[in-house]
Amino acid sequence: MDQGVTAERHGALLVVGDVVTDVVARHRGPLAAGTDTAAVIRTLPGGAGANVACWAAHAGCADVRLLGRVGADTAAWHERELVAAGVRPRLVVDPQAATGTVICLVDTGAAAERTFLTDSGASLRLDPADWSDTLLDGVARLHLSGYLLFTEPSRALVRRAMAAARARGVPVSLDPASAGFLVELGVDRFTAFAEGLDVLLPSRDEVCLLTGVVDPVEAAARLSRLVPLVVAKAGADGALVARSGAVPVRVPAVPAAPRDTTGAGDAFTGAFLAALLAGAAPEEAAARGCRAGAEAVERVGARPPQPGPSQAGRVD
């Protein structure tokens, strides 16, 4: 299905992934153990899958759809936020689990580095019963959040979705999502899933972890022998575009003054996929991804600005 990487395709982008509530705490300097650390705290919509969908819509993709699972506690709020961002959500309401929550600790120093505390909640309880092949009607690309690989029910859904996409000739992309979770999953188990992908969008740390190679350039080239197109996101160093084992093309970053790096990789992925759908070559799509990543780090939270009044920061 490599032809789907470069050829212009018309249709929707379907994202399957996590929808969570982000509690973003911005502090300066190290956390003071055993006492108080002053911080500015906001509650915002998040989740890697949902973020990618929102940034794809923000980048101009006219038809972005999202399959995710949430708890009844915040289902209405998340649906409103996604619709306001231009996404068509299909949210399964979990009768037992609350919506996933991520506490994002953001150091407001120069690098705006962040640390995540994650309670996946309902987000990783997607299972094959939540999938229908009709979800692919009118879809030109399927994108999967790598977080789905970290529980067996959602892994089973991924297998079913990938098989359905292959049967229809729909290209499939995946973002590995977390180097820490990849270690728990195991590289061999991940690469078994990767063999069915058309596009892989790892971070610099993830591409090195998946290959055991320290140099990200060599690692991206090696990984692209498994997946036809590998785009390794490297933050302030831009991105590497590797195709079929060839020497990767380096795409420069866009300068930015970071306030919060949460969701920068999701912004890149969303804009990249929107560009591919519009017919852009992978290198141009990566350049658009870098621009979106720069826009993302200059904002607090993981989502793009909404075209109208937002309910962000409120959970009803």
From TrEMBL:
Residue ranges the record marks as coiled coil: none
Name listed for the protein in its UniProt record: Sugar kinase
InterPro entries with a match to the protein in the record: Carboh/pur_kinase_PfkB_CS, PfkB_dom, Ribokinase-like
Keyword vocabulary terms for this entry: Kinase, Transferase
GO MF entry, a single one: kinase activity
Region listing for Disordered, in residue ranges: 292-316
Protein's organism: Streptomyces dangxiongensis
PANTHER family: PFKB DOMAIN PROTEIN, SUGAR KINASE
Span of domain Carbohydrate kinase PfkB: 13-307
